[in-house]
Amino acid sequence: MSSFQQARIDLGMHLRQLREGAQLSGKELAERLGWQASKVSRLENARQTASEEDVVMWAQAVDAAPESTKKLIGQVIGLAERHDSWRQRHRSGLAAIQEDMRDLEARTHLFRVFEPGLIIGLLQTAEYARNVFAKIKRIYSAPEEIDSAIRVRMQRQEILYDGKRRFRFLMPEAALRYRLAPIGVMRGQLDRLLAVSTLPNVEFGIIPFEAPLPSAAMNGFWLYDDVLVGVSTRTKELMIREAGDIEFYSRVFDEYCEVASFRDEARAVIVRILDDFAQQTDALGD
Fold first, then answer.
1. Which of 34, 43, 83, 84 is within CB 3.0–4.6 Å of 4 for a Cys-Cys bond?
2. What's 93's domain CATH number?
3. pTM higher than 0.85, yes or no?
4. Are 71 and 91 found together in one domain?
5. What CATH code is carried by the domain that includes residue 47?
6. How far apart are CA 55 and CA 63, in angstroms?
7. How confident is the model over 87-113, as a mean pLDDT?
8. Which helix (H) or strand (E) holds 142?
């Protein structure tokens, strides 16, 4: 078991002890918090990582002592700052990771996302996601939860239609061409990008092949408002809160935006790729 998962188990046990000490059932606590009962169960059983806001609300709902609240916050901060291996993290389950991300996204109003190697998760079709999750399962020996993970990923995408939130998505043209799925699935995925790019609260940019890059596109990253940046590597998932690091990734994002194509120009790039895929399909007789 990873140190990350053990810390999440310890936090869940602490939360359960506080709930039971207040003589509340999981359903009763969920009603007080305005949550689904399943979220209480996921947090207590270490199937989802609690946020600082989650534990503060929990502590208030059970009338926890200030010392207990402080301990909970310390546990959550420790989890957020822990640089754990992707292999161990994925062993906690593909669906659990999607639940963690959904909760983080629910607390975010401005998203800035750069992804160099695949279609951004909030924009993926179910079939494209299925192919991606299958590869993750193979590499990281994740539990067989692909259908559950896809379901949660699709639920995450409902946030795109919340007009109170803003999304700035950025990908290089190569990410749209990488064959992480069969060509028919790739064509459906690009059609999805065309549709999402017209949403009024979505700014969708593509860095064309011919654009001069301000720096090498090494890692994807997600900026959540101005308080957190998530950076993924092959073996680590970094959740960084330091102001200097957040400012650095904000500057990198802005530099990529300066050379990217947006709106009609971005859609023209997608249409060009669709035409190329159509020609490849015809050549294969598919």
1. 84
2. 3.30.870.10
3. no
4. no
5. 1.10.260.40
6. 12
7. 74
8. none
